[in-house]
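Running this now, will post back.
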Amino acid sequence: MCGIIGFNGMKPAKDVIIDGLEQLEYRGYDSAGFALLNDGEITVRKRTGKVAELRRMCENDDNPASCGIGHTRWATHGGVTDTNAHPHRCGKVVLIHNGIIENYRQLIAEYALADKLVSETDTEVVAALLDTLYEGDPKDAIRKLVKKLSGAFALCIMFEDIPDTIYSIRNVSPLVAAESEQGSVIASDLTALIEFSKEYFVVPEYHILTLKKNEIIVEDLKGRVVKPEKLTVNWDISSAKKNGYPHFMLKEIYEQPDAIRNTITPRISDGLPDFTDDGIDDAVFENCKRVNVVACGTAMHAGMVGRHIIESELRIPVQVEIASEFRYKDPIIDENTLTIVLSQSGETIDTLEALKLAKSRGSKVISIVNVKGSTIARESDYVLYTHAGPEIAVASTKAYTVQVSAMYLIACRMGLVKKLMSEKDARRFMSMLVNTPNLIEETLSMANDIKRIANHIKLSPDLFYIGRGLDYTMSLEAALKLKEISYVHAEAYAAGELKHGTIALITENVPVIAIATQEDVYSKVISNIREVKARGAYVVLVSMDEEVNDATICDKHIRIPKTDSRFSAFATAVILQLIAYYTSDAKGLDVDKPRNLAKSVTVE
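Update: finished.
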């Protein structure tokens, strides 16, 4: 959460920073601001609203400063006001911050900072404390500062009396940095760096960065210079642009076939799953007696699909845990437990802490992440990188389906290693997985039909999804998608549970989207559909039927391509994503930036 960028280079920093903030806006869009350092003078500009508002506010500013820092905020401490927006300045110090300082109230009292503060933020407390500690040596003051902070933080700092220099330090909250011919740049996300260089490095925790115009110096807290590992971005800058689509979300929905191909193809050898290049040892599967899947939000729903496949195909028990709950309970974990964590960004704080807990109990950890070099990737025993490219829309689409495909790969490899799946069955399983991008491409051709259904849904305050088995799992993700971007109150229910209370919510014309792709329970779901239809519901049926024999069971029918029901999840996901997308668009909402949400949750 929150977007950070710092630039020190060979051209005016203002436009570089604002352009970078627009690239980072999906990390937070409550307010935005920047600070420029020029000839011993610091200029701060900030305001509530999106980055476009900040750009308009200062479009006539003519500041030649080539050194500056910028921030787009997702509010944690204090309301959405100009005063609470970053950067925060106190005395000779100006800084921006991503994270949460847990002991900020104690610091106010201990160092008598109250009279220096004008905002409600924990960040301004950091600025005031740093100014108090500063006696002319920036690094010494930063070392003293971080020893007193409790919590997660990524800081970019400028000092009024230190020309053309940006300092940075972090704990947990992510930062990446790059050197280029244009200058030195640091950011909370690769999307703001790619314009400058495809080579970057992850800022090490508790190391002080000094960004000069032509170099970045990395030192540990003892002042020893460190050479960080350089990484290479494997996607092009065009991947982070809309490329003619009206929204990033729609573009990313249409990118799913290629994202899945890019994820699974390198991991198939002679028709079988192969993790040799990932360095994942087969022993981790051989010794596994149970699996814990830990994630948040959409990633957790991807894990639930994985649970369905592993349990049904291999008969190995799988527990799917919400990361924020897992880390505060006493989970059942031992050396025979395999923990799989899923996170698009690889920085989700609750998932990261859950990972650490699992490792401390002796479990091996495989992480499924989309960002190379991310914290979760570095902390895991093994990493299975998805190759979805950047996902800019807050609502996850392609990151979800590549996570699901990764879980299918793991299920198949585990089955082979443990001799729970024959080689013949594994080849057939993999051939169907390889075909899923084709299923998605066929499904996308139905977009206009789905758009018409969305025009009906947009008028409804409530909506219900029902399904059984794997379809119920898909319903949970569908309800989340609709809620987060269209603000329609949506709930998912196991269809067989309707009679146990939920059916009381069904009233005349309330939309019910029924998913019926699982052959073994198809007739049961149809019976449940009749129950809600008899009570006046407006029913949309999602199934593999060519056509519905009894037209009275639904008002609209969406047919997904015929496939093995174990693999229907991929086509179903696309249908449900498009329903959410077109409903939000029909309501005139900001599809890519839903209210109160941010892309990467790096605070508790």
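The chain has a mean pLDDT of 94. More later if anyone needs it.
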